[in-house]
User: Fold this.
Amino acid sequence: MSDTNLAPEKSFVFDFIDRNEKAVATIGDSIFYFGELGMQEVESARLMTDLLEEAGFAVERGISGFPTGFCATFGSGGPVIALHTEYDANPNNSQASGATEQKNITAYGPGHCEGHNCNAAVMVAGAIAAKRAMQEFGLKGTLKVFGAPGEEQLISRPYYVRDGWFDDVDVALHDHIGGDMHTVYGLTHAAAVSAYFTFRGESAHASTAPWRARDALDAVVLMDMGMAQFREHMEPDMRAHRVIKDGGDQPNVIPANATVWWTFRAPMADGARAVFEQGKKIAQGAAMMTNTEVEIDVMSAVWPVRTNQGLAEAIQSNIELVGVPDWTDDEQAFARKLQEAAEVKVEGLATEVRPLLGPTAQRAPSNDCGDVSWKVPMGRVGFPSNVPNVPFHHWAGGAALATTIAHKGSVAGAKTLAGTVVDLLSNPALIARAKKTFAAEIGDVVYKPLIPADQKPPVNLNREKMDPFREPMREHYVKEKPVFV
Assistant:
């Protein structure tokens, strides 16, 4: 970008990203074809950490007990700016990029159907651009880049916050894919507690001696019935949903063990905790009725996401400088055809920057970056690498993720992220405003992690689902490696 009105640091990072647009695209495409489920992002984490290490960051892998988590650091002293994002895929969403109908890459395989592959590309490219600017212009401070596994299961960042990884951070920036260029401030996502309830009883032959059994599956069913009755008494913005992970082995053997996985949501942490506590009581009642025992394992527990006004203002100024990508007629036609196939509003790709929105309306979904947002001021960079209106976690959500739409949107996101970082490093008043607005936003709320102090991350989660697909997926990997110049 040659705008002579830009500060030299800003011109530098924008030009760097433009010059390396191929590397940005290759990161996103590589992680798209890795298609790794949460907690099993082995190839994705390796690619990201290798690139950051090659760029001069000191990389700590395996932080907080997460094999695919990491923290990459450059610089020293204050201010300390953290960048963080996710890179996991979803099961049964192996969608061919560029197709406007449902089409598997690998039959029944996992795949990206939201755009976390692009999130990773934006974070890595933005971090490397900002680091180069720090060297070029002598910008003082510390840049910390966090890889967050298992976001689709709401796992890693509460552990990072609990374990002190954000204790010295002044401000944090999260990037996330969307259908337009935007940022917001206010409460954006709900709090949640996610837990396994495992009932243990005694097996018996279902036809010859069922009276000898203590049926663990009956306990799961009774808990489900109890939660169904409790829903009548939940507040309108509370949620509870589940899947049965283990319901037994065969019909003629009464299950001695059965597991159900519940997620409980509410706008605030106390509400999510309250729904969870009631769920525990219902589980204990189900165990009593079936003469079984219940074990409860909290896998994840997250605060609601709150984005900061001061950082939103800084991000918005960069969004307006970067602007919306120039879409071709073919890209617009693809977007409209995909919107039509997904049965959503047909309007093509966004052509204008969305104005700063805030305080925004809170939504029911959750994201594990919420804990970060109550520990330090946090802003979110929204970038247009997907088609507006298409549903995530659906085949249509994966159709654009390795196309030129994704590539152009990721370049815009990386420029916005890097531009915001150099602004924060260059202008102490921006961080001061972020902290001032943060203090007003959280008021007298005292952050305390929802996850237990001794909880260990579920490192084996999704391994059995992921491992059978690694070899058939490998033939689709991008052969070229990203190179930044």
About this structure: The mean pLDDT is 97. The CA atoms of residues 89 and 277 lie 30 Å apart.
